[in-house]
Amino acid sequence: MLDQIDRNILRVMQKDGRITNQDLAAKSGISPSACFDRLRKLREQGYITDIVALLDPEKLDRSLLVFIEVVLDRTTNNHFDEFAAVVRRMPEILECHMVAGGFDYLLKTRVANMAAYRRFLGDTLTLLKGVRETRTYAVLEEVKYTTNLQI
């Protein structure tokens, strides 16, 4: 069970994964050694899964954000497993979520531009075994983006 100090450590780490242990301890009101131990425990228990750098997609020629609904022609476990295995290897796909509702998967993709997306869709995604139908939603404006969970 997380106490208030653990929650505070997680809040601070979400905003600045590069913070020093000394500064994290000061912001959490505990000693550096206690902070180090708590941080280690939070990692071991899986509360902190990774620490990464967030990159600017525009500077890396990946400015077009597109969401795609995917409908499979069959909804059996082996079809789900096959689709998931292939999607995990596609660098254009940032996220893939199996969903309940009118379609099977929601994909979040990043590509350079609409021409690149058209190539990805026509040459790759729609040719995958089991894909019956797709619907594309190109993002016009990213109103909110965060990786921070409410704690």
Automatic annotation (TrEMBL):
Biological process according to GO: regulation of DNA-templated transcription; response to amino acid
Task: Output a single Gene Ontology CC term carried by this record.
Answer: cytosol
Q: Which Pfam families match?
A: AsnC_trans_reg (PF01037), HTH_24 (PF13412)
The name under which this protein is listed is Winged helix-turn-helix transcriptional regulator
* GO MF annotation terms: sequence-specific DNA binding
Which residue ranges does the record assign to the HTH asnC-type domain? Answer: 2-63
Q: Which InterPro entries match?
A: ArsR-like_HTH, AsnC-type_HTH_dom, Dimeric_a/b-barrel, Tscrpt_reg_AsnC-like, Tscrpt_reg_AsnC/Lrp_C, WH-like_DNA-bd_sf, WH_DNA-bd_sf
What superkingdom heads the lineage? Bacteria
Keywords, A to Z, come to: Activator, DNA-binding, Transcription, Transcription regulation
